[in-house]
Amino acid sequence: MNWRDRLLPASFRGVGFWIDQAKTPVGRKGQLHEYPQRDLPYFEDLGQQARIHEITAFIVGANCLEQRDKLLKALEAGNGELVHPWLGRLQVKVGECDMTHSRQDGGLVTFALKFYPDQPLPFPTATVSTQKVLLAKADGLLGSAVARFEQAMTLIKAARIGIANLRNSLTGVYEVIKEQLQPLIDQYRQITELVKAVKELPKEVAAEFKGLLGDIKELKAFAKEGYRGVIADVSQQLEAIRKADAPKITTGKDTSAAAQAMADLVQDTMLVKVAQWVASMPVATTPVKLASTPSVAQQSTSPVSRQEVPVSDDMQALRAAVTAAIDPMLAKAGPVHFQAINDVKEALVAHLRAVASSGVRQVSKSFQESLPAVVVAYKQFGDATRAEEVTQRNGITHPGFSPNEVKVSRE
């Protein structure tokens, strides 16, 4: 294609004109240093030269004054698209310009235009913090749980509650409290004290549960436990939810209702605790890879410091377990409390999906012989200190002997 065929008709903000000459500085800008008693100067590079477009343009013809006014209006707008005959379409800002009229050159208006490069400001993008949403929904669930318990107890005749039957019904629930809600044991050291409080002081029981849980601040729990530690704790709490699901059937309508109300309150409290622990897991940033792999001898004295990254398969399995534990709770909840539980469920799924998207996949590695877990960790990660991760992920009984095929996270 001939170079003339590649020229574009010049314009700014859609207003056309003719170009006589265009000049644009290129290359690098810098400072030249010259020294006495030295023949060689030094050029200090200060970066790329700004592309300032200096254009000698003109408008000619019988309607040149009308076209001139259109161009002046476009220039006063300050920025826009410049169609440069040789450089193409450019986003520019208008700089200092001169306009010249001459009686001798009738029907001709000359412009000396200067345009500076313009980078349009990007629109701000909002990112939803799934951690904060989850903690907010957990707070809402705890308030709804306490309200449901208090409402259920107002419909029960305390005089009709059998102490012995209620105690038998809450045996499993009390075991969950001892295992997962340890601070309540200071208040209810024996199951008899809990049963008596449920019958005679239900509002105080509700207040104890309401004040039990607080938001996890600054992800301290995650800093201590890491992704695998949090998953292990959450799995225990999900099992506790299942244990507290259905108290033993008791004789008497009021006794059964009181036992069910207490079981529901413990379940809801455990779900709030699950939400708080899951919220402690941050969405991982892209880790920095090691430039080289230190030797085992070096790692024995200076362990490798690395950013922990979640395994997507673990998060997907946890999401399935969370859903399986929550669905029975939704089935027995009233309309208002159903919404509170479902909000937490959706927030849990959203945050676990966000964490999983920032993680790595689990892969299988095959070896010709059985290797110690420390060797597998060093071969896969270049980090011998991750031997415990290998043993836990594969259920290895003795860390000195691993199967020929092991599951590890991809690096």
TrEMBL record:
Pfam families to which the protein is assigned, alphabetical: DNA_circ_N
DNA circulation N-terminal domain residues: 7-92
Origin superkingdom: Bacteria
Designated name of the protein: DNA circularization N-terminal domain-containing protein
Organism: Pseudomonas khorasanensis
